[in-house]
Structure formats: structure tokens, C-alpha cells
Amino acid sequence: MEDFIRPPNESGIAKNTFDRPRGRREVTSDTATRRQFLKVSAAGIAAATLGQEAWSNQPKRDIPYRTLGRTGEKVSVVGIGGYHLGRPEVTADDSLRIVRTALDEGINFLDNCWDYNGGESEIRMGRALRDGYRKKAFLMTKIDGRDKNTAEKQINESLKRLQTDRIDLLQFHEVIRDTDPDRIFAPGGALETVLQAQKDGKVRYIGFTGHKSPDIHLKMLNTASAHHFNFDTVQMPLNVMDAHFNSFEAKVLPALQKQNMGVLGMKPMGDPFILNSKTATAIECLHYAMNLPTSVVITGCDSIPILQQAIDAARNFQPLSADAVAKLLARTAQAAKSGEYELYKTSHHFDGTYQNPQWLG
Hints:
Elements: H1 34-55, E1 65-67, E2 74-76, E3 78-81, H2 92-105, E4 109-110, H3 120-128, E5 138-143, H4 148-162, E6 167-172, H5 180-185, H6 190-199, E7 203-209, H7 214-226, E8 233-237, H8 248-251, H9 253-258, E9 262-266, H10 273-276, H11 282-291, E10 296-300, H12 304-315, H13 322-336, H14 343-346, H15 352-355
Parallel strand pairs: 3-10, 4-5, 5-6, 6-7, 7-8, 8-9, 9-10
Antiparallel strand pairs: 1-2
Helix pairs in contact: 1-13, 2-3, 3-4, 4-6, 11-12
């Protein structure tokens, strides 16, 4: 088995990212109450204080590292999203350069998924991890399978594509239906396969991800608890607009902190719909997510300039003041109130398993 090693230092600047068009837009009409806004504002302000203590000793020009919950693993504050690496407009050579540049510059957290671009994202990442680069990476991928056999097939395919014998973190992908937790934990469900894979040394840590509803995340956590199981990590949207609308930050983040689970923030820019609102810049979006008690903020990078933006944002991050958090939340509140810039919550735009239910098994 290979062990990942802790990274180096220096350099950076840049720009932003987009994401996949999937399905139609169906905006709902849920609005955050003022009480929730004040609660989230207070949470953000508290995070600023927490951040000041946790990160004040970081070297100025290094990528900051944080602890991944109870695992004790050290991961870079920013991680590279796998989806963008397999997009048709991104060449295989570009993907290789993005991954290797990220690892050389000190980013060690790599995100991927069995279903991204028909497996091309994992294939490209696997090529980039040759020549000793696997040792620099904390490698995460996800599976869609909800039953034992489907999950086993997807794990083995991911290992082959990624050209590795071990995945550092395997997550159940797109927990977006109320039925998903029960299916995963049922007799003959996907958890049985994942636990066996962990026992066999193919998987180190186990988590889940979803972007639809904080209540479904809470059901997944409660279902795990009922089965005497603890996840190592949870991935969810954490951004300047989530704070106002059907908020993972307000509802799920406190539960994860209580259980000392690794917090993986995703969609810091709404892929990239939050930027379309003209209420926050790319750097502000990245810094807001980093300012929360996240272990890592995952962002898609489809070019070296966009990667350099993420590197620069990480290296120059300083915990936001209470006043800065409050102003940013106030500036984004109106645009965020209906969820029109968070299509992963209000539509099937990002729901790969909705478009392809056969992936669930």
C-alpha cells in the first residue's frame, strides 16, 4: 500500500470555474426567514473567530492544511474537483497538467466520481497519478450504487481507472432522495460492500455526499447512527447563498462538528451560477467557504489559470472579520432567497443519478 505524503510550498494567481448542464431548471419558492439569516450570520462570525485561532500559525505562502475530522489526516484547504478534468473541451494533456501542477504546488486533496464523464475523469486522473504522483495525493472518489453488487462493480472499476490499489476516501454519491439512506444501509445494501472493501484495504475512509436537501443529509446521519455506524466525512454545498436558502451550513454543519466529521465543502461558486448574480467575486466565494470550519473546499478547475486562482485564494486566505462576513451575507441575501442561483437544490440540473437511475442498481 502507498502512503500519501505531505506537500510543499510557493506560487500562484488566477480566475474561475463552471459545471455540468444536466436537465431542466425547476426553481422552488422556499425562502429563508430573518431568524435563520441571523443564525447563519452568527455562525459565520463564530467561524471567523475559530479560524483565527486555528490558522494563525500557517506560513504565509504555503497552502494551508487542515485536519480531516477524526481521521487525523492533513488535507489542503482547497481540493481539485474531478468532473471538470474529463470535460470534452479539456484535453487529456491539460488534465494531466492541472492535476500534477496542483500536487506540485501543495494541493493534496483530489475529488472524483465513478460516473464523471463516463469514467473519463477517473481515467485522466489515474494517468496523472503515475510517476510517483500518487504518493502526493489524498485521493477521494464516489460511487452511485445503492446495492451490494452494483457498489462492488463500481469500486473495482474506479480502482482500475485510477490506477491504484487503494482509495483514501470513498463516498456514497448523490444522496439526494429520501430513500437513499435506507437503501444504502439495508441488508444487501452498498454499505456492506464498502465495509468489506475497507477491510480488504481497498478503501481507507468512508463518507457521503449530496447537494439537494439538508434534511436528507440529516436523515443519512440519523440512519447511520441507528445502525451504529459513523461516517468519516460529509460533503455538501457551502457558499454565500446556501447561507440564506435551505441551508446546509445552518442545519448540517453543527451536527458534523459535534461528531468531529470531516467537512467537505463543494460548489463554492454554485458552478458557476452564484457568479452570474454579480453579488460576489470568485475569490470572495472561495474565502467564504474556507472561512467556515471546512476541512477542504472542493472547486472545479478546467485550466491552469483557474487552478492558479484557487492556489492564490488558498495562500492568501486570512480568516474573515465578523464585519466582512456580515456584509457579504447582506449583499447576497436578496439574490439567494429563492434558490435560483443554487440549481443543484432547486432543479435536476446537477442530478446525474436522476438522469441515469440505472447507476443506482
